[in-house]
Amino acid sequence: MKIINTCNEIKKTFTDGFSIELWREYAAGISAELPLKCEKDARDYDFEKEVRPILDKALNEEKINILDKSFRKVIDNLNSNLAKLFDEEPDISIILYLGLCNGAGWATTLDGKNTVLLGVEKIIELDWGDEANMRALILHEIGHLWHKLNGNLYLPDFTKRRKSIQQLYQEGVAMVCEQILCDDDEFYHQNKNGWLDWCRKNENDIKAEYLRRLNAKESVQDFFGDWCSYKDHSDVGYFLGCQFVRYLMKTNSLKEIAGLSYSELNRKFSEYASRTIEPLEAEDYSKCSNIWNMKTQPLTDKWLEEIKTGNRLVFIYKINGEFIGEGALVIDAGDPDYTVPERRIYVSRMIVKKEYRNRGIGSEILTFLIEKAKEMGYSEMTIGVDKDNVNALHLYRKFGFTEVLFDGADKDGEYFKLMKTI
User: Fold this and answer.
1) Where are the domains of the chain?
2) Cβ density class 246-280: b for 16+ within 10 Å, e for less
3) Residue 109, Cα to own-chain centre: how many angstroms?
4) What is the full DSSP assignment across 269-299?
5) Which helix (H) or strand (E) segment is 225 a member of?
6) CA pair distance 330, 306, nearest whole angstrom
């Protein structure tokens, strides 16, 4: 791996401010290909109005020094992180340079070598010069190069839909790689001021709107880039792409995903985006009473009353409008088998239609129910399950649920109660 840090050259070269002639000479010193590459990429910008002001602000010695220090710290620990993703040290270059607003990070090819270009001017503009943001930026761009080395980073982009699928796919794979390298499946470098919570709460809306725009051949630029926003939230496409790739990972390895064709990605995204979890009103409950391929549990007056009063919350999992699964939460003031002073919440029903099982849908429903309980202010949740229901027990234990005593209520020994702190 080759590391090039040009912070000192930037400070020495531009002592009297930015000059395009000096910049071309400086960039050619890094690579003969670099000046033309950057100018070609920036040709649609109004240089005087959009580029020069950012360059002038970036030529600040104090800010460059902070950025320089962060870059050195991240690079010092980079190899140990890369082993989590690469089988051996990748043959790549990482170059910290002054560009022409070509991006804070740019995974590309330079001199025939896979390269990460890190634009000092954009990093300073975005205030990403601290160590945490620098690490996230570098790891994300390395994720793009991992994708290129292991599959199809670039799909044929003959249509607007293909370009939009490609962008979501690229950023999703890179985001998952970034999370792997960070050892944190919940990590998003964009997560500031409640960004991730908002994305999670609005995931159904986000993916439905992205799919609508694909079908209508409309731009998806609002979902990407710090200069754009979807409902006043920028970079929402990174969240959506990551969630899409995580969805694919339920049935494929990351390396298999890296090599998927456009047609497969297009089909899978339509499938993913059409999946929703919606609350069910009491008057609609009978609609899903016979879909489970099992003995129908009677809809009792007690259940209906609990739904109407809000003590029983029923959520339906749909694919293209078809009922596929159900999850229900019950809020109860007391339980002789489990004594706590405050109201408690438990999962009273969770089921997936037989032909759709073993596709990760149960995990999606349970994740949703846990997040809903947390959102309502509960700190623990309980679940009851038959001891011979091996698959359900495996799922709940995987999510961190553990058995608790029934205080004698389970006399026949056929039933487990499980509890989890959430």
Assistant:
1) 2-150, 160-272, 276-421
2) bbbeeebebeebbebebeebbebbeebbebbbeeb
3) 26
4) HHHHHTEEEEE--GGGGGGGTT-SSSPPPP-
5) none
6) 8
Where is 406: in which H helix or E strand?
none
Residue closest to 146 by CA, chosen among 119, 104, 180, 120: 180
Residue 247, CB half-sphere, CA atoms under 13 Å: how many? Answer: 23
R_g over Cα of the chain: 26
Asked whether the beta carbons of 23 and 62 are under 8 A apart, the reply is no
- Contact residues for 401 (Cβ-Cβ < 8 A; gap 6+): 383, 418, 419, 420
Scan for tokens 């470098």, then name that residue.
189
pLDDT tens digit sequence for 144-189: 999 999 998 888 877 899 999 999 999 999 999 999 999 898 899 8
CA distance 193 to 127: 15
Nearest to 233 by CA among 179, 272, 197: 197
Q: What is the C-alpha separation between 308 and 311, in angstroms, rounded?
A: 8
Q: Does domain 276-421 have CATH number 1.10.10.10?
A: no
Residue 42 has pLDDT above 80, yes or no: yes
Tens digits of residue pLDDT in 237-285: 999 999 999 999 988 999 999 999 999 999 999 989 988 888 876 556 6
Count CB neighbours of 179 within 10 A: 19
3-class SS string, 135-202: HHHHHHHHHHHHHHHHCCCCCCCCCHHHHHHHHHHHHHHHHHHHHHHHCCCCCCCCCCCCHHHHHHHC
Among candidates 356, 408, 384, 169, which has minimal Cα distance to 265? 169
pTM of the model: 0.76
CA end-to-end span of the chain: 42
User: Bridge-partner residues for 95, per DSSP?
Assistant: 4, 117
Name residues whose C-beta falls within 8 Å of residue 201's C-beta, 6 or more positions apart in sequence: 375
Q: Helix (H, G, I), strand (E, B), or coil: what is residue 347? A: strand
Q: How distant, in Å, are the alpha carbons of 84, 311, 419 from that of 330?
A: 41, 6, 14
Q: Where are the alpha helices (DSSP H) in 349-398?
A: 361-375, 390-398
Calpha distance 143→168 (Å, rounded)? 14
Distance CA 261, CA 116 (A): 25
Amino acid at 102: N
